Amino acid sequence: MANTSSRTLRLLSLLQTRRFWPGDDLAERLGVSTRTLRRDIDRLRELGYPVEAQRGIDGGYQLAPGAVLPPLVLDDEEAVAIGVGLQAAIQGGTVIGIEESSVRALTKIVRVVPSRLRRRIDALAAMTVPAQWGDGAPSVDAGVLTTIAQACRDAERLEFTYTTRENERAVRHVEPHRLVLLGRRWYLVAWDLTRFDWRSFRLDRLSEPHSTGAAFPQRQLPTGDAAEFVRAGIDNLATRYEVEALVHAPAAFVRARIGRWGTVEHIDDDRCLLRMSADSLDWPMVALGVTGSDFEVIAPPAMLDHVREWVDRFGRAAQHDQPG
Which domains occur in the chain, in start order? Predict the structure, then answer.
């Protein structure tokens, strides 16, 4: 029975990947006879999946177009691939704007897959080294992200060890509210049960988070949203560089390219003002390059010197037609 159930799930997964499957091809992929395939098709229909059959020499099967299907079913290999892919999207940061949705999706995957698959996902992720670029912001373990995301969703209190800017470590007890990706760093916005106030915590300074299982009623955040709260806290800190640049591109275009790395202000249809706060000038340089547009540095003066350094460096590289 276990083999039959597994094969039925595999059959459903295959039907969801292509519009139409010839019967012989489908039977071959499953390693069964066409007669067994027909029985498996009947079993899917009994479960409520609308499978249509086309008879004749070119006969085959397909899920009814436009039909409302039961939830998508993934086989083991597909679930592992999705889990590892989502972790790569979160940690690598090579595709802009999908990190937060990747955390939400990974949280759902981790909660429903069997423990044996979770171990495979964790093992593959542990043996994969994500490429770091930009300002070198430290990566955050996907397990930490999913643990915190689940606690936020389920409104359960969290306990973790936190290292402050002064390198002091302490155990914190919080009521988690939201995860926020700002710039290249993840933050947790939470109600601190020790200080009786709202706080934001950098996830790269946070370790060993675990839910206490204690539920709590949601509190009202004092600002419009969690991202605004984190940004306000960062603005109150002594940031080394406040970068402003005039970008020769529409605001909507630039905003789509850089996400929440900075703020974009509309000037006219062809120009916008980009503002960024950073500890290093390297990351604003990368962000401006990502826009793929001409730009003019407004502030600070050190940014102009940094641009000249990069121009000289790339100019030297362009002088060599081939390595060596």
Answer: 2-63 (1.10.10.10), 78-224 (no CATH), 241-318 (3.30.70.250)
Tokens 């992200």, residue located: 145
Contact 200, 137 (CB under 8 A): no
Tokens of 244: 């402003």
pTM above 0.85, yes or no: no
Asked if 46 and 66 touch (Cβ cutoff 8 Å), the reply is no
d(CA 67, CA 50): 7
Dihedral (CA of 177, 206, 134, 83) sign: negative
245 Rama sector, left if φ>0, alpha if ψ -120 to 50, beta otherwise: beta
Q: Which residues pair with 174 in a beta bridge?
A: 158, 192
Secondary structure percentages of the chain, helix, strand, coil, to 5: 45, 25, 30
Q: What is the pLDDT of residue 223?
A: 78
Q: Which two structure tokens, joined as six digits, stand for 214?
A: 């204690």
Residue owning tokens 């970068």:
243
Q: Do β-strands 156-163 and 241-247 pair in parallel, antiparallel, or remain unpaired? A: unpaired
**Residue-wise pLDDT tens digits, 158-200:** 999 998 877 788 999 999 998 887 766 788 999 999 888 899 9
CA 210, 211, 212, 216: dihedral to nearest 10 degrees? Answer: 150
pLDDT band at 131 (very low <50, low <70, confident <90, very high): very low
Report yes or no: 234 and 242 within 8 Å, Cβ to Cβ. Answer: no
C-alpha distance from residue 159 to each of 24, 112, 173 (Å)? 55, 23, 5
284 in Cβ contact with 303 (< 8 Å): yes
Cα–Cα distance measured from residue 163 to residue 297, given in angstroms and rounded to the nearest whole number: 36
pLDDT tens digits for range 255-271: 888 876 788 999 999 99
Specify the 3-state DSSP secondary structure of 9: helix
Which residue type does 125 have? A
